[in-house]
Amino acid sequence: MPKAYFYGVGRAFPGVSKVPENSFDMQVQPLEPRRMFATWSDYAHLVGQDAATRDYKSVTGAGVTVAVIDTGIDYTQTSLGGGFGKKFKVIGGYDFVDNDSDPMDETGHGTSVAGVIAAKPYTVNGVTYQGVAPDAKLVALRVGTDSGISDNNIDRALRWVIKNYKTFGISVVNLSLGSGNYTTAQTNSTMSADFQKLHDLRIFVTAASGNSNDQQSGPISQDGIAYPAADPSVFAVGAVDSSDVITPWAQRGQELDLLAPGVDIVMPKLGGGFVTEDGTSFSSPYVAGTAALIKQEDPSAGAGDVGSILMSSGRTNRDGDNESGNTTGLLFSRLNIDAALGLATQRIGKTRTLGLGTSFDTALDSEGVLHAAYYDKGRLLYATRDTDGLWSKAQIVDSSADVGSQVSIAIDATGKAGIGYYDATNTAVKYASFGGSRWTSATIESSKLVGTSPSVGFTIAGDAYLAYYRKSGGTLQLAHLTRDTGKWNRVTVDGGNGANVGSVLSLDVGEAALRSGFFTVYHATVAVAYADSTNGALKYARLDVDDPTATWFTAVVDTTGGIGSIDLKLHASPLTSATQAQIAYRDTKNGLVKYAYRNTDWFPQTVASSTGSGVQLSFDDSDNVLVTYFNGKKKALYTSTWRGTGSWSTAFNTASSAQVSVSMNARAAEVLLSWLDRQQTTLGTSDLV
């Protein structure tokens, strides 16, 4: 790993080089003019810190301990407890620089970070500040000074947490340090195993995304985030100012998980008093403090549960709408503390099983939480399954009519769910979206018997695509939501003029990541696999949505004479690491489960001989093909695997009904199987990979 840096106070400190004397300026800076009646800072208002203290008075971080891996903590600060040991706020720690048990800060960075997490209230220039979790306890792990940090010290600190987390009750770790620019998830030969172990121990780890290698004058010179923020087991946090504008120096890219305040942050100062500073160093502890609040609300919440709540409850922020300089164009989630606590309450796991009707769909988010939308007595309901396997209490998404008998759910890049569904009362297709605290629903089309077989997906930029069947006219329709305008447009993809297509369909959205200079450009493809009922064929349609000159490409995949239960994925295969169109489906005429992949031409092959319905396509961490299907004769689910050569190998999954859904989490290489029992009353789940 490159040299490590602390990300704050206007500059970073390499892990080897000595910085010039007096370059670490910790002087108090004057605050910008404030409204006289304001008692909270502008950024506290922005992220709902003031609302959270009002709405959740008892949720203060009590009983939760946060480990701060940094320059130590000045525990003599009154707002940080005024002492060291089990009777104080800073209850323990270690100094890996001097190799002793006194983690006193000599630089100031760690003291400021600790203040954002858990400082008691203090007032500066008439404005009240406090740590996000003012009653949380702290553990100080000193790994560096103004001369920098060694990787070895960071690794030793992580192993110290693993060894001592029970003794000190540690459930959150903050690292406001890092280095490099990484556009994809990264692993480190020593630290990644520690981060994975902490994740497995249900300890939430958050890290600063970086300050563009400390070019804080901005703009960023390339996309990507620092390590360890880029580690798959670490939650990455970037910076916004009090106007919710991403700072020009905050590193960001597709691996960034959340945004939080990082400009003009007023914090406790080494030796007493307070200091105003900038940096993603101070964004990360905002998230660590919120994680402590969530852990107080739900001590059983795992690391993935906390991350999912933070993302799902956040406000969306488009990089490039109000930002200056180089931007990524991506859509991010920005911390909302009040909404996070509300969602944490809703997400608390209740039961191992979920009772639901005969129509459902599931999706896994990037943190490993399963989201389910389902039909129950004319209503569309929604619930989540936490990383420990417990289902939350269901929420009503829509009960305005007989809705949800056919349903599709997907998760966008900010961790929020979108649901496409059929309104049987009005013969309409509808779409519901979660905005962080509540659901909103819109009718996409309602004329002439439309809306069956809905299938929804998202681009990396957050736009939604919803394919559906218009029975009147026999056409395949596609609706597109432009996220920034909130407007839908609709097109006919195929059918009409005597052809009847789309009664069974599956949509997927793929992204090609291309380098343009030092930035990644994403080219989205939307594709639909669908039945042509006129001649019994399986067809495929694709559009390169980022090419303004592109037109729909259509092809016939298979002419078996009957098609059912289609599942399309744009994914790498055992034959190539490039994205490839692949389809699992039923040949209803011949009673076969089949799989087809596209490599210029289409290549169908038989997976199994089986009558029934329900087919799902997924992939293991080596991109081997998994086709899961319901065997109607044996009333059970089976999964067949193909590794690119030879025949399919088949394994029994479970007794079930025909209703089945398989969800993938590419970030964690996780595949989760969900099914209804034979009585069609209880939903079961298990790991497929």
Detailed description of the structure:
The chain is mostly beta strands. It has a domain at 41-345: Rossmann fold (3-Layer(aba) Sandwich). It has eight helices and 46 strands. The strands form 13 sheets. The protein has a seven-stranded parallel sheet, with helices on both faces. Strands 19-46-45-44 form a four-stranded antiparallel sheet, with no helix packed on it. Strands 20-21-22-23 form a four-stranded antiparallel sheet, with no helix packed on it. Strand 41 (625-631) and strand 42 form a beta hairpin. Helix 3 runs parallel beside helix 6 and helix 6 (284-297) runs parallel beside helix 8 (337-347). It starts with a strand and ends with a strand.
Question: On the 0-100 scale, what is the average pLDDT?
Answer: 92
Give me the CATH architecture of the domain at 41-345, please.
3-Layer(aba) Sandwich
User: Can you say what the CATH homologous superfamily of the domain at 41-345 is?
Assistant: Peptidase S8/S53 domain
- Low-confidence spans: pLDDT under 50, at least 5 residues? 9-37
Large-scale geometry: elongated
What is CATH's topology name of the domain at 41-345? Answer: Rossmann fold
Radius of gyration: 26 Å
Distance between the termini: 30 Å
Proportion in helices: 10-25%
**Total of helices:** 8
Relevant terms:
689 residues, Rossmann fold, 7-stranded parallel β-sheet, 46 strands
Summarize the structure.
By secondary structure, this protein is mainly beta.
List the helices and strands and how they pair.
Blueprint: E1 5-6, H1 42-46, H2 49-55, E2 65-70, E3 90-95, H3 109-118, E4 122-124, E5 127-129, E6 137-142, E7 144-145, E8 148-149, H4 151-168, E9 170-175, E10 177-182, H5 191-200, E11 204-208, E12 225-227, E13 235-240, E14 258-261, E15 265-268, E16 274-277, H6 284-297, H7 303-313, E17 315-318, E18 331-334, H8 337-347, E19 354-355, E20 360-364, E21 370-376, E22 379-385, E23 395-398, E24 403-411, E25 417-423, E26 428-434, E27 439-445, E28 450-458, E29 464-470, E30 475-482, E31 487-495, E32 501-516, E33 519-532, E34 537-544, E35 553-558, E36 563-573, E37 576-587, E38 592-599, E39 601-609, E40 615-619, E41 625-631, E42 636-642, E43 649-655, E44 660-665, E45 670-676, E46 682-687
Parallel strand pairs: 2-6, 2-9, 3-6, 9-11, 11-13, 13-14
Antiparallel strand pairs: 1-10, 4-5, 7-8, 10-12, 15-16, 17-18, 19-46, 20-21, 21-22, 22-23, 24-25, 25-26, 26-27, 28-29, 29-30, 30-31, 32-33, 33-34, 34-35, 36-37, 37-38, 38-39, 40-41, 41-42, 42-43, 44-45, 45-46
Helix pairs in contact: 2-8, 3-6, 4-5, 6-8, 7-8
